[in-house]
Every structure is written in C-alpha cells, then in structure tokens.
Design a protein that fits this description.
The structure is a homotetramer. Chain A is α+β, with helices and mostly antiparallel strands. The first copy, chain A, has one domain: Thiol Ester Dehydrase, Chain A (Roll). Chain A is 22% helix and 36% strand. Chain A has 2 helices and 6 strands. Chain A has a 6-stranded antiparallel sheet with strand order 1-2-4-5-6-3. Chain A is globular, with a radius of gyration of 14 Å. Chains in contact: A-B, A-C, A-D, B-C, B-D, C-D. At the C-D interface, helix 2 and strand 3 of C face helix 2 and strand 3 of D. Strand 3 of chain A pairs antiparallel with strand 3 of chain B, so a sheet runs across the interface.
C-alpha cells in the first residue's frame, strides 16, 4: 500500500479536522502496514485510581485506525467507523501514555479493516486490542 | 432478576464513583431487563457538525451496561468491561441527547453479557448498537 | 421495510443456492423486523455430550441474517458476511432444535446490520446472541 | 508462557475429544505465542463455487484458539468459547487448504483472549481474522 500522508501531514490534518481532541494524540510514525499513535494521557482520560478510561482507549484505537486509513488513501475526512470490537485485557499503568499500533488488513473499495494493539508506554504486556471497520466514501471525498 | 438498586441509587452511585463524568449521564429508569440511560449531550461529546462522537457513544453504552449489572448485583465498583462490540449505523441528530436501552442477557457467576440500543432522543431509528461483557469480581466487592 | 420474499420463497431459494445445507434449516416465518429460522439438529451439528457445536450456531445465525436481508431486498445470492460478533452464553439443551430470531437494524445501500437471538426450542433462556454485517452487492445481483 | 502440550500431544487430544471433526484439522506447530493449524479442506466445508464456507472458517479459528490455550494450560477439555468476533475480508482460493495462526494475547485465571489470522495456503493476503475469548474452568478440569 502506497503511503499518501506521512506523520507530519496526518498531524496537521488532525489539528484541522478535530480541533477538540487533536492535542490528545501524537502520530509517532507511519509504519509499513499502518501507523503508531500516542495518547498523551491527561486528567480527562482517567478513571479513579489514575487508570485510563475505556472510552479514552476506544478513542485512541478509533483515531489510530482512521489515521492508518488516511495515510493510504489521502485526506478523506468522511471515512466513518462502522464497527469496533475491543477487548480490555489489563489495567493500564497509572500516569503513563498509551501507545497504539494500528495495522491495516484490508483496504477495499468501500471498507477498510484493521487491528489495533494498545500498550502502556514502555511496557510489553497488551492493555487492549481492537478491530475496526471503516466505511470509505465513494470518491474519497478529498478534503 | 431481582432489582437491588433503583434509578436514584444508581445515580447516587455514579456521583460517588465517577466524579469526572456523572453529569454526562442520567438514569431514566430501571427496566424489567436492564436500564435506560440518557447522555446529556454537551460540547465535549461532539464532532464537527454537531454530531455525537464515537467515543461518547461507546462511553454511554459502557456506563449503561455497568449500571444495568449493578442494578441487579448491587454496588460492585470493581466490575470491569472485558469486551465491547459496537456498530455505528446512523449519524445522531445534532443537538439532541442520546437515549440508551441496556438489556442483560446473562448474569453469570463471573461474566455478565448484554446489549445496548442507542437512539437520538425522540427518534425511532437506531443510531448505534453494542454488546458488552463485564467481568464480575468474585465477592461482588461491595463498595 | 417491504417484504419481497416470504417463508416459502426463502425456503425454495435455500434449496437452490445451498444444496449442501438446506436440509439443516427451516424458515419458520418472516417477521415484522426479520425472520425466524429453525436449525433441525442432527448428529453433524453436535459435540460430545449432545450439545450443538459453536460452528453450527454460527452457521444458524449467518443463514438467518442472510435470509432476513433477502426477505427485504429479494434473491441476491451475492450478499456476503463481512463481520460477525457472537456470544455463547449457555449450553444448548441436548437433542433439541435451535430457534433463531434475526432482526434487521439497518438496511443501507451497501451494508446491512442485524442481531440474532438463539434459543433451544421451547426454552426461554438465550443460548447465544450474534450481530452480523452483510455487504450488499451494488445491483443486488438478482439471481 | 510455558508450553505444556506440543503439536503431537494436541493432535492426539483432538482425536480423543472431537472424534467428529479431528480429520478436518492438522496441528502444524506450536509457536512462541500460540499455534498454527491447517484446515484440510473437503467438500463439506465448501460453498457453491468451491470457496470455504463461513462456518468452516469460524470452526477453524475456534479450534485453533482452543488448541493454543491448551498448549499452555494442558488438556482442559472444558474450556469454552464465550465470544468470537470474526471479519471475512477476502474470498478463499478454491480447492486450497486454509492456514490459521492463533496468537494468545492474555492467559488469565478465568479468561484467555487471542487473535487468529487465516490465509489460503501459500498466499499472503488475509482471508479472515478473528478474536476469541475462552472461559477457563476453575481447576483446568484435566481430562
């Protein structure tokens, strides 16, 4: 899959399209099969005890797969999530950023499917995994 | 399934356990098979265009199923989500609260499973559906 | 949603398109929101102990949602499953048929989404639940 | 994770516990993180056109994750699938075996979670992916 947007272009796109949340995320790199994204953990992502909340982890997986798809098809703001199946496996380490590796398995004409693996920064054990399906707009609705 | 916490008790529990988010949610009622919960839509839940974000819908389903389980087992703060499969089917109506009907299908010794149906308040068409599995702590860790 | 195929038409379609498996299934009725289908349990569906196997329950949910979609769009043999999330909740009763209620939540231009609830015939407790997404061919590829 | 059963032991276990289906599957190897299993494709797995059916792919993923778990905990016949989310991404190549790589992400006290990637033998493109959760019996019910 050809790369159409690099980490810098994806970051600039986030700022433009998601003004509410772009400071939560940092695109670390565009990889051979997807992207790696950091959730810069802040108070609003936490549950009592300092652990990152489920919705914040869902949001990280959702943004990471969105960016993985855009990195291959270009800036199509209208791609939308149709399904996400997420498994929460271990408690994230308190006070640590989360790292998400998104891998694209299929980039079809109308659907893209991929997996996300989420870790606490610097740890080996998986915190969560997710599979997401994105529906791609017919003309790739270039922004 | 016997009801151990009513809407008022669930609301008070939310205030105590989730001080960060309790104003987002309103327990409308405890139903025969689960609970009905409202997401009081605010700016922080919205994407550009005024539609409710995916993470906010995930958060609504997650809280609603949590409350449905607690309504039957009592205030076990330690129940944790292990899996959620969520389908986004239609764009929520802008500027309108979301209503979530959570139904418990199984309340086992260690796992609870149920479905959530999410609507824009006052509309018939489903915005999203989700299935969630909660892991229940051994002694129901009464809070 | 208008009904384009009734139980008899769906049954005849199964015979024609799935000669290997059509004797496994019986379309009980086309309902207001989907279909009700019976798995006529036979030795090849069983695991040791006489309980219906996971793949047989998956197959029942898959066929039931397929028939639910066809009942609304007509005989489009090319509709394909893109995702299924299935939860196994209780052991089926040995030596009893399974009944599956498939309900369509969304019938879009390219995707259909619905839920299946599976029971042992004559019992109230759910054995399994599943959500399926079908991809619908562009021209409904009438058979 | 220590390996408690190798490919030969897993194969012998299949023969004993699943007399109906053991000839369908061949344990290729126990890997560092799970197992690799072959579906020996036969007529009963096929749909018209010669492609492997959805239920047969589900069955392959289910057996592979079961064997991956057993390879680490020993012969616990009573481990049961509680959830499977499966994505069908490409049509399998007609007349070719399927290969399934099962990877364990979490092996907890009561739940095991892992991913399966399914290929047509000799091909690079993924045919399907699945995530499965197994419930592990309390005493590992040694067979």
């Amino acid at each position: 899959m050809q790369i159409k947007m690099d980490a810098e272009a994806l970051g600039a796109f986030l700022v433009e399209v998601f003004p509410q949340v772009h400071t939560d995320f940092e695109v670390i790199e565009v990889t051979e099969t997807g992207v790696r994204v950091r959730l810069v953990t802040a108070d609003r992502h936490l549950r009592p005890g300092g652990t990152v909340s489920g919705p914040a982890m869902f949001g990280l997986a959702d943004v990471a797969m969105y960016l993985a798809v855009l990195s291959r098809i270009g800036p199509a703001a209208l791609a939308v999530t149709t399904n996400c199946s997420i498994d929460f496996m271990r408690k994230p380490v308190a006070g640590v950023d989360l790292i998400c590796d998104a891998v694209i398995h299929k980039l079809g004409r109308v659907l893209a499917v991929g997996d996300c693996l989420i870790y606490s920064d610097g740890m080996d054990a998986l915190v969560a995994r997710a599979t997401l399906t994105y529906s791609i707009p017919p003309k790739n609705g270039v922004f």
